[in-house]
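Before drawing any conclusions, I looked closely at one protein, both as residues and as discrete backbone shape codes, quoted below without any editing:
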Amino acid sequence: MPPPLPHFLGLDIGTSATKALLCDESGRVVASASSGYELLQPQPNWSEQRPQDWWVATCAAIREVLTRAGTGSQEIAAVGLTGQMHGSVLLGADAMQPDGQAQPLRNALLWNDQRTGDQCEEIEALLGGRRRVVELVGNAALTGFTLPKLLWVREHEPQIWAAVRRILLPKDFIAYRLTGQLATDVGDASGTLLFDVDGREWSKAMCRAFDIDQSLLPPAHESATIIGEVSTTAAVATGLRARVPVIIGSGDNMAGAVGAGVVTPGTAVATLGTSGVIYAHASFPRRDLPDDVLRPAGRVHTMCAAAGNISWCITGCMLAAGLSLRWARDTLAPGRSYESIIAEAQDVRPGCEGLVFLPYLTGERCPHPNRHAKGGFIGLTSRHTRAHLLRAVIEGITFTLGEIFDIMRSSGVTVETVRLSGGGNRSAFWRQLQADVFNCPVATTNSEEGGGALGAAVLGMVGAKAFRSVSEATTACIAITETREPDAKMAGELAMWRERFSRVYPAVAPLFEN
């Protein structure tokens, strides 16, 4: 009997659950499982989780996926990691022990925590403005990022800050629990505001400016790097065998791009989840971007990609994509399925007879970096029906993604095809709408089920030397299943309505400040 084929485990430490995915060397998903945890909101606009809950869920998800697959732990060749970005895991002196058992000093502040507005203003003021921050670390000081959270803890919880000896990101805490090693990757580190994205190393200038001891920060590796092996203790907890290599992986956006096969120039991915993201692969660093792309400073993020040491990415994130549709469904059509409300909206002509929806329900990052931005319907008349309102919401989301996509194209990054990811892209209508709004072919792949967890498993394959590069691995594992071309007539009509949409936010933005 031939030996069993190797399998690769991808772990995605998400905001609502940890997902474990098992695939073979061809990228075929063998089984997946997830285990959830609680989101803590002790005050309005605060968002926290207990890192220990991530570990409990990770152990449960691994055991469940092994059971579903009927796979022995001896068949797992490597473990790859991904997860929510920007979260702050603060460890004390016990992190210096090599057993991986240190307990966090407090709950982790998450990517969607909004308490750090004052700290963001402090960062910009100290460095001489938002543009200077972007020049140093590729990104503006926004409430979601890690450095403002550290400054908040230092100001409001000085006793905890005094005890901090190591700072980790969410997936890196799970890597630590698995291996006892303190590490991160260049992609996740790019979202801290403490990392020189161009140089792919921690920023001495930022650490010095904000009195952050660089020894608190873990080594930052390329994303397909083996950082350790599953410890005996972790093997007992998870059901894995000891000494399985653990690959550090990357943040959810970067791993999601790997899972969609977006790892070479000419490709981008549009993700329609709770938020909406346009991610374009680049083979050059932020300093080589045309100057006008950085205006207004901070409207896009530039970070290290997961495809090796000459890979970067430009991303733009709108905060309320699927969230806006969920709000519309719950408010306008409670109890209805998403499929039914999209079908209802589909019967309305483009432009919704002049009705515009601004999808800024939780502030905005891109294309308008403004935490005070608000949503709204503009242009309502007595002729408008619920179907018009629903279509306006879908168009508002898609037009915003189109504005982000235009920023990508203006950056000098060539985009020949946009690959689609996320729950919103299950709709054929919405896939075609994106092709027409972007005026670019859009494609779906065989990896939709896997997402970031599949990307993490692929990085595990590269780290374990099953493939020589991330590009080679995605070529072997990720295949296009559908391509939709833009309809020239419809693209022209939508361009007219999108131009109208683009004029609305600047006209009403002054109303949002108070």
